Amino acid sequence: MWGIFKKRDREKAVDEDRIFTRKIDKENLLKKDLKRELERNIKNLEKREVKEIDTSLLNKNYKIDYKNSLNEEQLKALTSIEGQYLVIAGAGSGKTRTIIYRTAFLLEQGIKEEEILMVTFTRKAADEMKSRLETLLERDIKVEIGTFHSFCMKLMGKNRNLFNLEKIVIIDEKEKKSILGVIIREKRLKLEIGKERVLNIIEGLEKGKNIEDILTEKEKEYRETLEILIGDYKKYKKINRLFDFNDLIDKVLIKLKSDINFRRYIQKKYRYIIVDEYQDTDKKQRDILKLICGKDGNLMVVGDDYQSIYGFRGAEFENILRFNEDFPNSYLIKLEKNYRSTEEIVEYSNKIASKFHLKYNKVSKSTGRKGDKPKILKFKDENLQNRFIVEKILKFQKNGIKYGDMAIIYRDRYSVIKLENLLLENSIPYEKKIDNSVQDFEIELYLKLLNLKREPKNILYWEDILEYIPKNNKISIFDILDGKEKNSKILKICKWLENDYTLEESLKISINLMEDIIQDRVLKFEKIFDINSKINLNINLENYIKEFNRYLTKKDSNDKVALISVHSSKGLEWKVVFIPMMLEGIFPSSLSGENLEEEKRLYYVACSRSKEFLYLLYLEYFYEKLGYFNKKSSFLKF
């Protein structure tokens, strides 16, 4: 009898194995088909590469000397005005300069400012473009320059009746995390996934990805909880009429698809469209671009497929490879001359790029400037590696290279904790950047407390504070607001909120509250006291917070070593670059799953930030939060 059951179990196992194998075979077949399709798109567009410059356009008497300001490759982009173009711009090739000069050239051709739309991916980049264009033209301009999100927000703001909106309230990343925190807290959800990762999952779902393809095997254990959390998160936004940036994209995309008159109005308004960092677009942004450009619009997108590194945020690497498919009559221009790096670093970066499986055929060329070869160095342990970096930084600084011309680029933030402490011990000024934000722990908590003082019943502000309080998971915000919570730290905060203190008194109490909340570390208040000494305290709390933030944004010194993640380093450059912890599992990251190609591109980005000196460092072994690592990175074999 038992034999029959065992036989059935074996047959069932064999059937399950066959089904799984067929599924894998099907997935591999689809991947091969996709690869062939993309390769065909690349090949067809490369057949239409612009080889010559339209010199007739340069013979006029312009205010700007374009001929002597740009190289031959850049002039091809400058003079390509009518039609649709993809500009593949290598690292250090002067793509922003090319975009600025081409926009000025359009204006000197008599094209109206309001007919030009320039789109990039950060507000900072948009502000820089506007500033550089106005400096070049020596006047103010009205060209529309912004991000996809700001463009959509302006469209909705100017056409509120079309979108059935009274007002637009935008929530940022911090507010989104706070909303998730409130839901997790009040529903007592058990979830071993960080809020930032949850937002990445939501973003992936909003961009049309399947949840099975987004979640790791470990995360799939929490799928039911995630679905409850995501559903409540969406309800919260809807009830409170809140929009995040992806909502703006969705609203505009739906309107462009469904309203032909609105679409034609936008196409007629923006006759010349320029998009920077096209490799960072997602599917919906790509669709918006196709709709506002139309078949006959004048479009130039600029990007580098080698630097597509934001897949985790929903960016579609395929978009830049499908340009030929989206715009069948388009042309290709390549910017391959690298003005940033020495010949040796350019050569090493090209070696990395040669390992990419899908790409446009682009080879960076140096200006002939010679330098040191990238140095690959092995250390017995983390302490020896960190000491080497610190000693090198001090030596370079002594020899005339500023701290601000040096960077430590890391793949895993846990791997540089001890290094950061060593920088402090050696009085080396540094600036730590994660996702382009720089904020001290103390200042962050200080401002969160003051925001709560300003709006004591704001549940999101309460969530921000509770994050700092030990054993906070059983504390309910609604119990706090109803006066039922007995936690001593909470009671002290409530007393502060209820009393009407002068601003100066209130600020002193907030410092005391911080010391009461945080007892596992020494708090440093020097920066807060320094800023307060510069502010007139005879103002209300709201104006004080504005003034405090204004002083925060003032740069005290640019001469600091950058301690920066690979993702945040994109678009920046330094004379000296250190990339520590080059170990298999850290770089490339073991968390990247199957996306080894994006890890390669991350490595390309990290190495191509260096102008003169590049140090690639690895250890015999390293142990940290994510595990034990003792294998030299496979990337160091390139």
* Alpha carbon gap, first and last residue: 59 Å
**Mean pLDDT over the full residue set:** 90
Low-confidence stretches: none
As a percent range, the share of helical residues equals 40-55%
Work out the helix count. 28
Radius of gyration: 27 Å
Task: Write a structural description.
The chain has about 650 residues and is of the alpha/beta class. Helix 3 (about 70-80) packs across helix 4, helix 12 (about 245-260) runs parallel beside helix 14 (about 285-295) and helix 20 (about 440-455) crosses helix 24 (about 505-515). The protein has 28 helices and 18 strands. The strands form 5 sheets. A 6-stranded parallel β-sheet has the order 3-2-6-7-1-8. A 6-stranded parallel β-sheet has the order 11-16-15-12-14-13. The chain has a two-stranded parallel ribbon with strand order 4-5.
Layout of strands and helices, then pairs:
Blueprint (H helix, E strand, L loop, with lengths): L1 H45 L19 H4 L2 H8 L4 E6 L5 H14 L7 E5 L2 H15 L6 E4 H11 L1 H4 L5 E2 L2 H14 L8 H12 L4 H4 L8 H17 L2 E2 L1 H14 L1 H10 L2 E4 L7 H11 L4 E6 L14 H4 L1 H4 L4 E5 L1 E2 L4 H11 L11 E2 L8 E5 L2 H17 L7 E5 L6 H9 L4 E4 L7 H14 L4 H8 L10 H5 L6 H11 L4 H15 L8 H7 L8 H13 L7 E5 H4 L4 E6 L16 H12 L2 E10 L2 E3 L2 E3 L9
Parallel strand pairs: 1-7, 1-8, 2-3, 2-6, 4-5, 6-7, 9-10, 11-16, 12-14, 12-15, 13-14, 15-16
Antiparallel strand pairs: 17-18
In short:
Helices cover 50% and strands 12% of the residues. The protein is an alpha/beta fold and 638 residues long. The protein is globular.
Keywords:
638 residues, alpha/beta, six-stranded parallel β-sheet, 50% helix
